[in-house]
Amino acid sequence: MNTWNLVDPELRPALSNSSPLTLTQDALVTLRQQRQQAALENVQAFRDIGLTVEEQVVSCAEHPPVRVCVISPAAPAAPRMGILHIHGGGHLFGSPEQSLSLTSVTALQHDCVIVSVDYRLAPETVFPGSLEDCYAALVWMQEQAATLGIHPEHIGLMGDSTGAGLAASLALLARDRAGPQLAFQNLMFPMLDDRTVTETDPNPVTGEFMWTREYNHFGWHALLGREPGAEDISPYAAPARATDLHGLPPTWLGVGTLNLFVDENMRFARQLMRAGVAVEMAIWPGEYHGFSSDPEARVAKQAREQRQAWIARFRPNQG
Description:
- By secondary structure, this protein is an alpha/beta fold.
- It contains 10 helices and 8 strands.
- Helix 5 crosses helix 7.
């Protein structure tokens, strides 16, 4: 179904100028290198606006080292809120440096410390590699809270797309391992359910733009190392499969009506609410996957402001 007429008019110019992805192993390598080089060249610009951006390596027994970037205001302060940020990219690409446009604004606006995880990517690393990387970073973050200047009772999760899906998985894993207590999870259009790939009656108005059903199949197959949709897929890989959502932290979700993930996001929000989790959800009409990164569109600015306003309530000085 052609859904161009449903797209918010403010977002049509950016959509018209977008280029389709070529998802092959060779293309992935080139795309990763190009994006990362461009991001590295811009890191100093974020330091120039009053941030520290420091690379750390998390070492732990029986797990490969995990690289993280610690982003925080340069000025000293009392223990700050901490956010573990998990970047998006379909499990296939992305990095902490490529997400600085989000994490820098968040660190400055909330005077908080952000630990952004450079988790291992698929298809080179399949489940549960990336999730275990994120868990290792979360444990390190809690253990090093005093050194990092983080209030240990004010640590939350933040992610977009794949990163939001990993954040939801991480919240489940931390709960079930009796790991670090989480104050919140902030999830922008999370990638939660491999079964969206195999549904027999797909939503006819979703998935035409930016992140399509074909891309989604590629991403899930890369993560799982096999075809998505099987009955034995772990809920830690696809958190929408979890049957017990009790005890999870307060959750914010945001998604557009044209986003491939809108149905799975709404189902997940409903299940969270039925489990007694405090949930706030924003659904924006006429918005496709990734729309919130548009620098000019009014609705994109409003979406960014809305997610940040929700995070603000978890700062230590907010009680």
